[in-house]
Structures are given as structure tokens and as C-alpha cells.
Amino acid sequence: MRVRLLTLAALAAVLPPAAAVAAEEAAMATAGPEVDEVYVWGKREGQVGVAASASQGEVSYGAYANRPLLRPGELAEVIPGLAATQHSGSGKANQFFLRGFNLDHGTDFSISLDGVPLNLRTHAHGQGYLDINGVTPEFVQTIDYRKGPYFAEAGDFSAAGSAAFRTFETMPQTFLETQGGENGFGRAVVGLNAGSGLIGVDLTTSDGPWVRDENLRKASGLARFAVGDWSVTALAYGATWDSTDQIPQRAVDAGALSRLGAVDTTDGGKTSRFILSARLHPDADSDLVVYAQRYRVNLWSNFTYFLDDPVNGDQFEQAEKRWILGASGFRTWRPSETLTVRVGAETRLDDIGAIGLYRTRDRQRLSTDRQDDLTEWSAGAWGAATWAAGSVRATLGLRADVIGVDVDADNPLNSGRETDGQLSPKLTLAWRVSPQVELYADAGRGFHSNDARGAVQRVSPSTGDPVDRVPLFAAADGAEVGARYEVPGFSASLALWALKLESELIYVGDAGDTESTDGTKRLGAELLVTWTPRPGINLDVSGAATRARYRGAPLAGDRIPNALEYVVTAGATVRLTEDDVAQLTLRRLGPAPLIEDNSARSKSATVVNLAYTHFFGRLAVTADVLNVFDSKDNDITYFYASRLPGEPADGVEDIHYHPMEPRQVRVSLRYNF
Q: Is the dihedral of CA 171, 174, 180, 183 positive or negative?
């Protein structure tokens, strides 16, 4: 028998005080003497004496239960210093920014859901593609995040950081929520407490504020059940949408295009994902996850308009379908009171059929740039030994990874097999100076994998010219020092870090894709402060600044395009009365160079969101005001050449951007049974 006891602070995030107290007392009364596990969760969890770095942390449901979210991907913004934006339709993976990286859609930041990796290798759109639109925020219990390549258990796509999303084993209470708003937005969410598990459904429709309706239709379902030490989780997700992609500044300035308009009105996409996993978790010292995934996507985009094809336009389709099979696990031993040893392993197979790039017009295929069938497999093993004596903890880790690919291309010159491996040492040190203060020093090597097709190619699919192959592994070496201070009601952490990459992936406008570049180096600082000045008021602010440069000072310049110079986030949650709660969030993205010589730059962008909830017994009514001040800033900005009708054949180099969505209001009704 397992009983989860929820603290009043956490329950108050979704229930009025009287109901929260009653629920907690009921849980305690029914627990009886057979309680074998008690889960207590609230907002940000204390980390002094637990964490291995100053930038590590855990956030639980109470931190985002009432958080106003424009899109599901913004749930990741509870991780300090991380920003999630969008440059296309709502069904496409978010654009992530962290530690001076434009992570595109996840290249150097990994996320797992209940132990199942979500990043996709050798993806049709971009390496490490990370789509979390199928994750329902109301079903996520905790988010455990780590930054930097210092942790032995973190593998591919984790150079900048990683996060583990864990859903509820069973819902705290059954609920039904409906939400409606401007621009044709509608959403219905059902979460069912099924005793030993949960069943959840999330349905969303939206037309968006764009000149051309987005026609988003999204459905996601989650089921999770436990039998003894085993749990089985199933997720199903599907979406279709029409997208308004980034637009050229010159067309808006000339009055030829609305700021919310599109050049190609036939762009869009459709995607689906099915995950089935089984997990054996008898205790905190051992874990085993096995999983299978089925995934497919079709994306239609046009970023250069009529530059390559003045007649049909430059729209292209990126499409793929794949099966993913994998497993991971770890085991912990304690040979002595001061020594803890943990070892783990993982394996994964991606069977990718018909992954291709096609030239299209109005979503109809005209020609094939390339089409491949391929398999990609990987295996990894890691170990970490932690010595803890007195106020000092030291962990020495080592990780070994190997990746193999087998590519069958439509051009035999680009077919082939390749295998490579990497050893990654890790070291973390923690010194608890006092019960309230802890100091940290960390160092390690990590990596992101490169696209399997680039590892075996010999010629360009479009021109036939010889091209260089890229290695399967792009190593990343990092180090960090930091400090953390915690007392009841207040905590602060500071981290100073450095990271070097052998190569990274950047966006290329004329191809609508990414390419591997030279090595880079980044230096940065992060600060997180949380404060509860009095019961019912929670404040938090985080700031991150980064200096990002190419190594070797290339002739074109050493700036890294879209590397944000700073990110600031802040939030305030206030219980105004017993039945009224307000939450305000702010996010400011700093400027960034758009090209290597820094002659074109993006502007800073700020958005403020507000949520206000009133409880009528078990019924909660929430009003979300998104983009409160109706900011006209941009979600993402690029600089490259494109061509509109009547312009020179070589096109015009210009700023292209995707604007923030204008102010909008959404109202939701939630009934807790």
C-alpha cells in the first residue's frame, strides 16, 4: 500500500485552503500503519546537502500549477535560464535557448519523460529534435534539471543540460477542466485518479492570431498503472496545423505584408507519437526502464520564398517515420558508510524508414532532394562513485558511449556504415560550509551526436559536389563553480561556468536546416533567488548572462548567431484571500548577434503573463492574460537572404522574424472531484 501525502503549500496551488487541509487530513487518516512511502512535494525543492552543482535543481507541481502558459513547451521555462519560443506553427517543436545556445529544437538539451528519451537523432528537421507538445503540464509531478556535462547518467544531447519530467503515479484528485479564449482557442483536460494509476486526456484547438488561421487540432492521452514495483505508461499524441513561419522585415516595412501574415500560406505540418514503457523501480537504489516508440512527422516550410525556384517557390517538405526501441537502468551499492557506487547502462535502436527532403508547391511533391532508409543504434555504460565524509562530497564518474549507423541513401555515394565511440570523465565536488551554505566545483565531458547521414555522405545531394563527412560525436568539455544558500523562506544560488564544443549545429536560412560548424566556447553566470516573505507570497527571479564565441577567430567573425547574451525570468505567486490566487511571470530575452561579424543583431524581447484564480468550493475559475502589455517584440529573429517576387535573382539579405502573439485572454473552469 502506497499513500502520497501532499503538503498544504502544494495543495493550495490547485485547491482552496479548506479543501487542501481536508484532503491532507483525509490522506493522513487513511494512511494507517501500512504506509511504506510518503511523498511530500511543494515548490522548488531544497538542494543543500543533496545537489552536486549550484545549477542543479528540482521543481514540483506547485511551482507551475497556476502558471499562465501560452503553449505546453513553456513548462520547461521553470528551469532557470531556459526560454522556449516558436518560429513556426504550434505543433512544431519549440525553439529552446539556454546558456548562450540557440538549441534549435533540442540539440544540446535533453528531456526524458518517465525515463523515456524524447530527443530524436537524425531527424528530418534537425538533430536532437525535441517535441514536448504532447506533454500535458497538469500531469507532470516533478521536473529534475541539471546543467553542464558533469553527470555520468546524462548522455546524448546533454552538453548544455538535461531535464527529467516525471508524471504523477496517480492524480491527487480527479478533475475536469475546460478552457476557452480568443483566436478560436479551446481546450479540454480530464485527469482521472484510477487508484493504482491515472488516465488523462488533453484536447486542444486554436486558430491563433495570424492572418491565416492556424487550424491547430491536437489530442494527447496518458495512461499509467502500477502493479507492485512495476509501472506501465502509455502516451499517444497527434497534431495537425497550418503555420505562419518567419517573415522578412522589408515586406512589413513596405506595408506589403502584415506583421501577423505569411508569405507562403500553405506551410504547416502533422505529427504523431506513441510511447509504451514499463518501469521496475523497487526502491531509490535501482531502476529499469524498457520502451518502444512510434513516431512520424511531415513539415512543410518556406523560408526563402522564391530564391531557389522563381516559378514554384522554395517550399520543401521534411518527412520521416520511425520505430524506437530502448532500455536503461542503474543499480546502487553502499560498500561503506562513506562510499556509494552507482552503475548504469542504456541502449537504443532507431529504425528510420523513408526520411526525406522534398521540393513542394502547395504541399504537393515536385522532386526529391534526398531520401534515405537508415538504422542508428547506441549503447552506453556509466559508473559514479561518491565519497561523503563530514561536510564534503566528491563524485568521480566515467561514461562510455558507442554509436553505429547504417544508411541506405537514394544516391549510393551517400550510403555507408560508420561506428564511433567516446569516453567521458566526470567530477563533482560539494562542500557544506554550514547548514545553510554549500559550495560546488564540477567538471566533465559530454557530447551531442551528429546526423547519421552526415557521417557517411560523400557528395552534396543537391549539387553533387564533394563534401566532408562529420564525426558521429561532437565532444563538449565544461566546468563550473558555484554556491548555494538556503534558509526557511529564502534561497539563492550562483554558478559561474565555461563550456567548449568541438562543433555545434546552427540554422541556415537558405536551406531551412542546420549545419555543423567549427568549435565554440562559452562563459557564463547564473543567479537564482526564491523568497517567501510571508505565507501566501512566493517570489522568484533568475538571471543568466553568457559570452559565446567561435574558437580560432574565423575570418567572417567569431560571434555565434542567435546566442542570447542574457535571459531574465521572474515570477510572483500571491494568495490574495482564501479563495483568490494570482500569478505573474516575466521573461526577457537579451539581444544576440545574427551573423558572425555582429553587424546584424536581434533586439531584446520581453513578455509578461498573468493568471488570476478564484475558488468556488471545488470549482476553480481562472483568467489568463497572456502578453499583458501587448508587446510587439519577436519570439525569434534570423538574418539571411530571401527573395520575394520582383526582387533580384540573388535575393536580399534581411532580418526575418516570428512575432510574439498579441495580448489575449483565456478563461478556464476546473472542477476537482
A: positive
Whether 114 and 326 have beta carbons less than 8 Å apart is answered as no
The secondary element (H helix, E strand) that includes residue 25 is helix 17-31
Confidence of residue 157 (pLDDT cuts 50, 70, 90): very high
Dist. CA 452–CA 422, nearest whole Å:
16
What 8-state DSSP symbol labels residue 138?
Answer: G
pLDDT(512) > 50: no
Give the Cα separation of 21 and 173 in Å (integer). Answer: 14
Non-local (6+) Cβ contacts of 672 within 8 A are 14, 15, 19, 173, 174, 175, 618, 619, 620
Strands, E, within 99-196: which ranges?
101-102, 109-113, 116-117, 140-147, 161-167, 175-181, 185-193
Note the pLDDT of residue 670: 96
pLDDT band at 353 (very low <50, low <70, confident <90, very high): confident
Nearest to 430 by CA among 484, 384, 382: 484
| Of 72, 76, 66, residue with least CA distance to 206 | 72
CA–CA dist 587, 79 (Å, integer): 12
Which residues, including other chains, have CB under 8 Å from residue 431's CB and lie 6 or more apart? 391, 392, 393, 438, 439, 440
**Cβ–Cβ < 8 Å for 242, 267:** yes
Query: Residue 509 above 80 pLDDT?
Result: no
Diameter of the chain measured on Cα atoms: 80
Taking all residues of the chain, what is their mean pLDDT, rounded to a whole number? Answer: 90
Report the predicted TM-score, pTM, of the whole model to 2 decimal places: 0.91
**How would you label 159-181 residue by residue, b for 16+ Cβ within 10 Å and e otherwise?**
bbbbbbbbbbbbbbbbbebebeb
Q: Tens of pLDDT along 520-543? A: 999 999 999 999 999 999 999 999
pLDDT at 32 over 60: no
Partner residues linked to 432 by β-bridges: 438
Q: What is the DSSP string of 507-568?
A: EETTTTEEEE---EEEEEEEEEEEEEEETTEEEEEEEEEEEEEETT--TT-SBPTT--SEEE
- Find out whether 130 and 118 touch, Cβ atoms under 8 Å: yes
Residue type, 179: Q
Evaluated on CA atoms 138, 143, 147, 150, the torsion sign reads: negative
Helix, strand, coil share of the chain (percent; to 5): 5, 55, 35
Q: How many CB atoms lie within 10 A of CB 490?
A: 14
The pLDDT value recorded for residue 359 is 95
Rounded to 10 degrees, the C-alpha dihedral 171/169/238/514 comes to: 120
196: which 3 cell numbers?
A: 493504482
